[in-house]
Structure formats: C-alpha cells, structure tokens
Amino acid sequence: MAGKIGIEQMVSKGLIEKIRPDQDEIQGLLASANSRLTTAQQGLKDNPVRSFAQAYDAVYEACCAFMKFQGYWMAGEKSHSIVLAFCRLTLDEKYIRILDTFEEAEKRRHDDMYDGRFSMDVKEAQEMVRKARTLVRRLALLG
C-alpha cells in the first residue's frame, strides 16, 4: 500500500467495505488472540520462534476484531497489510510502533525461514509476547 491513505480512501479504492459488526465473531477473535498469547508464553523456552509466530497471529486476530468492531472488513483481496494499515489509522503512536516491530520481525522471519536460518532468542521472543499482550489488551479496550 503506497503512501498513507485514510479510511474513506480505503473504502473508495475497494480495499475495505462497511460491514455490520458481529459481536460473537469479534469476541471469538479476541478469545483466540488471548489463547495464542497463552500458548506463546508457555512455549517460549522450547521454541521462541514459534512463540513469536503465535504472538504475531494474536496481534493480527486482535486487529481483525478491532477492524470489525469499527464496522469495516476487507473487500476483494485479503491481506494482513490492509488490516494493519487500518489499525495504524486509528491507534496512538505507541501502538503503531508495536505494529511496526511485529511487521519487521515477521518480514525477517518470512524471508529467512525458507533458508532455515531464522532464529530468535528467548529474550527477544519474550519481549514480542509482552508487546503483543499490550496491543491485544488495547485493541480489546477500544473495541
């Protein structure tokens, strides 16, 4: 997504559309996000990379829940970048920085995982799980 555009521009470009929020679906996404965070926390020492992936998925699910709560969802092509761009438009800078941290780490993981060279130590994974928990809580409060 080139350049920063607003929510109305995302609608007019056909990236997102207005929807009627489904509270059961939203609560299900938030419950899943919290479950992933619990799993991530429990697996930190055994597999920090997997814990990071669980934390990333938790962030994404919470962002999906928030977007749906706001009455929007992706139209046409589905992509993480659309959901994260939507959240960037509505969150405070502190939470945008958390999203940026996750996107950077996820890109690194994605680029490296096919070569078998991606590693994340327990300390970094713990920090990512902590940040994910902060963001998931914030999105749940806003939604």
* Mean residue pLDDT: 89
Number of DSSP strands? 2
The rounded distance between the terminal residues' Cα atoms is 25 Å
| Strand order in space, largest sheet | 1-2
Number of domains: 1
How would you describe this structure to a colleague?
71% of the residues lie in helices and 4% in strands. The protein contains 6 helices and 2 strands. The chain has a two-stranded antiparallel ribbon with strand order 1-2. It is globular and about 45 Å long.
Key terms:
single chain; 143 residues; mainly alpha; Four Helix Bundle (Hemerythrin (Met), subunit A); two-stranded antiparallel sheet; 6 helices; globular
In short:
This protein has helices spanning 7-12, 23-42, 48-69, 80-90, 93-113, 122-142, and strands spanning 16-18, 72-74. The chain is mostly helical and 143 residues long. The protein starts with 6 loop residues before the first helix and ends with a helix.
